[in-house]
Write a structure and sequence with these properties.
The chain is an alpha/beta fold. The longest helix has 16 residues. 30% of the residues are buried. InterPro entries: MoCofactor_Util/Proc, NAD(P)-bd_dom_sf, Xanthine_DH_XdhC, XdhC_CoxI, XdhC_Rossmann_dom.
Length: 259
């Protein structure tokens, strides 16, 4: 489990392989575990054809682009059973459970004002990575008032938010809502320059967006690239201007795209 936690922290996808049940003789007892990544193995469920069959299937799961569900393999360990990686004549039968350990989704919130704090409160209840950044340390301290999170919450104090943005994992969903429109514009520019983010959202009115769009195109971004930024953000059918309502709208829209 320590290995699984380290792989999650390092954002390395893996599959947890568990010897779920054993009938008769087998190399390992029920409960033996193995973690498979694309390049490494941690632990063992007994070696031989049993282990290599599980490893092969685990790596097929890792290579799949679709989200995979846990699955069970049943293998007979006798000299008459089909064996791709050599025969095992233990005489038993085993069931092997393969559980994907995917890399959690990553979200970055720039600006921990009233809406940013409420948005962090909502997203922190989900099994994701949440990066929160602000140039005002006293606003980051407000995170101490939140309930213990389910998410991995990373707080980043940064006078220049672009430095944090450039260090985010690929595929991160970025939400820009700082107290300074100039900072928002710089962050939009940096986000577009990366080109490998999951999505980019900017809080603001249609008038704000039109100014930003004009400036970003003047900076050299193509109109098609600029228009990948979502502004305004949130669900258009959920009205209300209270910070908690806006945060709920933004979170619902974001989570629906991350499923």
């Amino acid at each position: 489990m320590d290995t699984a936690a380290e792989l999650r922290k390092s954002r390395v996808p893996a599959v947890l392989v568990t010897l779920a049940s054993v009938r008769g003789h087998a190399p390992r007892e029920a409960g033996a575990k193995l973690i498979v990544t694309a390049d490494d193995l941690h632990g063992t469920i007994g070696g031989g054809n049993l282990e290599m069959t599980a490893v092969t299937r685990a790596r097929e799961i890792l290579a799949s682009e679709s989200e995979s569900e846990p699955e069970m393999l049943t293998l007979r360990l006798n000299d008459k059973a089909p064996a791709r990686y050599g025969r095992q004549c233990c005489g038993g039968e085993v069931s092997v459970l393969l559980e994907p350990l995917p890399v959690p989704a990553s979200v970055a919130i720039f600006g921990i004002g009233n809406i940013g704090l409420e948005l962090t409160r909502i997203l922190a209840r989900h099994d994701i990575d949440v990066h929160v950044s602000d140039s005002r340390p006293e606003h980051l301290e407000e995170l101490d008032r939140l309930e213990p999170p389910v998410a991995q919450v990373h707080r980043e104090f940064a006078v220049i938010g672009e430095e944090v943005l450039l260090g985010l994992p690929p595929g991160t969903h970025v939400l820009i809502m700082t107290h300074d429109h100039a900072e928002d514009l710089h962050l939009c520019d940096a986000a577009l320059t990366r080109g490998d983010l999951g999505s980019i959202g900017l809080i603001g009115s249609s008038a704000k967006w039109q100014r930003f769009r004009k400036n970003l195109i003047a900076e050299g971004h193509t109109p098609e690239t600029v228009d990948t930024i979502d502004c305004p953000i949130g669900l258009p059918d959920l009205p209300g201007k209270q910070p908690a309502t806006i945060a709920l709208s933004v979170a619902a829209d974001l989570l629906s795209r991350m499923v």
